[in-house]
């Protein structure tokens, strides 16, 4: 479902004399349907950079990222938007939402924009918000004023409302209590069981061991410094 081939990336620091910093070289791996792969590696190894490239936020210097038939490395912005709507979900660590949109609508939105009717979308949103222990009295409010942990759970509910064939998870259990962590791990297991291909960064090692079928060390793709 996800195929990464010979992927490289460097950053050009335009405000520092155009210095070019190579941060990734020759990254290559596949993720099959129903499989969860954990990205590991020391701080600075390039895990977040790789995730941003998979989601199409960072341009690749060379290589291919094939997700559901689209090469993210060369796709047009319009194709990336369609991919994000229908195929590739991303649960980031922080919730970014439009102010004044209710929590229920934030979670239902991925279903509404893929053609599900409002009743179905809201039913799924309610189910997820209840499972993630967001009190019902908050569902009609915008999540902008919610606590960090509440926002993270709304973000997770939104990421799991529509059944994306591929999912990127950035620290999905960070700052969650034991009960909600368990809910999130179950959601990941259910997504795998329905065939989702998942790439995740998990600093929570026990969580990683439980849901990941294997790990990939980003350090293997860190360019060796010239000496
Ligand atoms: N926008 C950017 N501009 C310049 N350099 C960057 C940029 N983003 C990342 N880097 C560099 O790329 C390298 C990889 O960073 P990245 O954030 O991907 O690492 P990481 O493995 O996710 O680390 P951590 O676990 O600390 O989050 C680092 O050397 C970092 O300084």
From TrEMBL:
Listed InterPro entries: AAA+_ATPase (IPR003593), ABC_transporter-like_ATP-bd (IPR003439), ABC_transporter-like_CS (IPR017871), CP_lyase_PhnL (IPR012701), P-loop_NTPase (IPR027417)
Arranged from A to Z, the UniProt key words for this protein are: ATP-binding, Lyase, Nucleotide-binding
SUPFAM superfamilies documented for this protein: P-loop containing nucleoside triphosphate hydrolases
* Protein family according to the UniProt entry: Belongs to the ABC transporter superfamily.
List the Pfam families hit by this protein, alphabetically: ABC_tran (PF00005)
Q: What is the lineage of its organism?
A: Bacteria, Pseudomonadati, Pseudomonadota, Alphaproteobacteria, Rhodobacterales
Name the chain's protein. Phosphonate C-P lyase system protein PhnL
Against Gene3D superfamilies, the record matches this protein to: P-loop containing nucleotide triphosphate hydrolases
Indicate the segments forming the ABC transporter domain, all copies: 2-227
Q: Does the keyword Secreted apply?
A: no
Q: Does the keyword Signal apply?
A: no
- GO molecular function annotation: lyase activity
Tell me the organism. Pseudosulfitobacter koreensis
Q: Which domain of life is it from?
A: Bacteria
């Amino acid at each position: 479902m996800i195929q990464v081939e010979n992927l490289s990336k460097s950053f050009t620091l335009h405000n520092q004399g155009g210095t070019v910093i190579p941060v990734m070289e020759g990254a290559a791996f596949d993720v099959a349907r129903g499989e969860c792969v954990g990205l590991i590696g020391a701080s600075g190894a390039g895990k977040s950079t790789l995730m941003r490239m998979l989601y199409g936020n960072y341009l690749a210097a060379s290589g291919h990222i094939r997700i559901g038939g689209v090469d993210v490395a060369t796709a047009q912005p319009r194709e990336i938007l369609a991919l994000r709507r229908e195929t590739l979900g991303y649960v980031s660590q922080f919730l970014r939402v439009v102010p004044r949109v209710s929590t229920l609508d934030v979670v239902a939105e991925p279903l509404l924009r893929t053609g599900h009717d409002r009743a179905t979308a809201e039913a799924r949103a309610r189910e997820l918000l209840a499972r993630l222990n967001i009190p019902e009295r908050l569902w009609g409010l915008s999540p902008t004023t919610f606590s960090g942990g509440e926002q993270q759970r709304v973000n997770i509910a939104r990421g799991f409302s529509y059944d994306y064939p591929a999912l990127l998870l950035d620290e999905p259990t960070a700052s969650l209590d034991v009960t909600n962590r368990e809910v999130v791990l179950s959601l990941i297991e259910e997504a795998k069981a329905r065939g989702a291909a998942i790439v995740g960064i998990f600093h929570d090692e026990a969580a990683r061991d439980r849901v990941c079928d294997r790990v990939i060390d980003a350090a293997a793709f860190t360019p060796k410094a010239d000496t």
